[in-house]
Amino acid sequence: MPWSETFGVVGLGRMARALLLPLLDSGLVERSAVRAAVATEASAQTLAGELGLQVSTDAARAWSAPVVLLAVKPQQIEAVAPAAAQALSAAAPAHEPLLISVLAGVPLWRLQALFPGRACVRAVPNTPALVRSGLTGLSWGEGVGEARRGEVRQLFAQVGEVLELPEPQLDPFLALTSSGPAFLALVAESMADGAVAAGLPRPLASHLAHRTMAGTAALLQGQELHPGELKDMVTSPAGTTAAGLRELERAGLRSALIEAVLAAAERSRQLA
Ligand SMILES: NC(=O)C1=CN([C@@H]2O[C@H](COP(=O)(O)OP(=O)(O)OC[C@H]3O[C@@H](n4cnc5c(N)ncnc54)[C@H](OP(=O)(O)O)[C@@H]3O)[C@@H](O)[C@H]2O)C=CC1
Ligand SMILES: O=C(O)[C@@H]1CCC=N1
What we know:
Elements: E1 7-10, H1 14-26, E2 34-37, H2 41-51, E3 54-56, H3 59-63, E4 67-70, H4 77-90, E5 98-101, H5 108-114, E6 119-124, E7 134-140, H6 146-157, E8 160-164, H7 170-177, H8 180-197, H9 202-222, H10 227-234, H11 240-251, H12 253-270
Parallel strand pairs: 1-2, 1-4, 2-3, 4-5, 5-6, 7-8
Antiparallel strand pairs: 6-7
Helix pairs in contact: 7-12, 8-9
Enzyme class: oxidoreductase
Domain Pyrroline-5-carboxylate reductase catalytic N-terminal: 7-105
Domain Pyrroline-5-carboxylate reductase dimerisation: 167-271
């Protein structure tokens, strides 16, 4: 069933688009229901043309919707709060006005302080949402009723798997799942670079790297394998994989990835 209310979107960058486009495609959210706001007139015009949506720099229109997806940068949150307060006082109070924030690191207590009068949900999505292979972590603020919770779960379920987590777990969740696509993209790009160095043409190398990554993930999940088991399955005595693994261990790949996830989680905590 389509979303029955207008749907505000404040900030229509890469993350908001990765969520909104599949929701529009699925019909859960109708184009005519979306009231989106961005910072610059140039973005508003480009996005309105590209997406066929009402996009403007007048945030009041977006904030007057009973449910608002907030997707500006964490550093921009202070700038958007006054328009939210004005819209709430100007309009008849909506039934349970709700704010869904995807801002990295910004905790529920701060959302509730900056956006009084709205129940708040902190959502941590990732960009694979665009191809409906996303993961979203959710933590509920005070006063989010069961009906609203159901709507939010349904919304994010359209773009992938939804997990409800205690708020302190959202920072490591984001480090692994939201920053993780960049880390894995670096691995895919580097492996393709290696194949090019070994003689494959670039387009073929890139295609093979992506398919290898997707196939490995499907095997790990489909067979419920521990990653160590999969590694051992592939590694023949005195073979090619053992030769490659020796280089990865020498270069400290494990430690580098562990530190990358820890650094991303720490940065998320700092953005509070
Ligand atoms: N990218 C990702 O993979 C993930 C991002 N997030 C979170 O999502 C949020 C958005 O990130 P991302 O999409 O990458 O960022 P982008 O820079 O791509 O998008 C930011 C958007 O905010 C708009 N904006 C800025 N200031 C205002 C304002 N005062 N009023 C209305 N709109 C405004 C910008 O408009 P304009 O174009 O006109 O400048 C732009 O549309 C961040 O908080 C990030 O932490 C969370 C998980 C993953
Ligand atoms: O890099 C960032 O800050 C955002 C949040 C997680 C992914 N991208």
